Amino acid sequence: MAAGVGRPESFALMVMRQPEVLHKVPVVIDRDDYTAAQLAALITQDPVLAADVIKLVNSAGHKLGSQEVTSL
After folding, report:
1. pLDDT value at residue 5
2. Number of domains in the chain
C-alpha cells in the first residue's frame, strides 16, 4: 500500500461528529412544517450521523423489502 494511504476503516475514525447538527434534529422534527428534504439536508451535514441513519434504515428491523438505502 502507498505511503499515507490507509484503510477506509482508519479514515472513518478520523471523521468528526457535528454535535450542533445532532441538537438541531429534534428542533426540526418538532416543527409541523418540516420536509424530508430539509431533514436529510440537516443530517447530511454530519457524515457520521448520516452513516448511522443509513445503517439503521438498512438493518433487519427497519429494512423494507430487498432494496438497500445508500443515500439520504
Report:
1. 56
2. 1
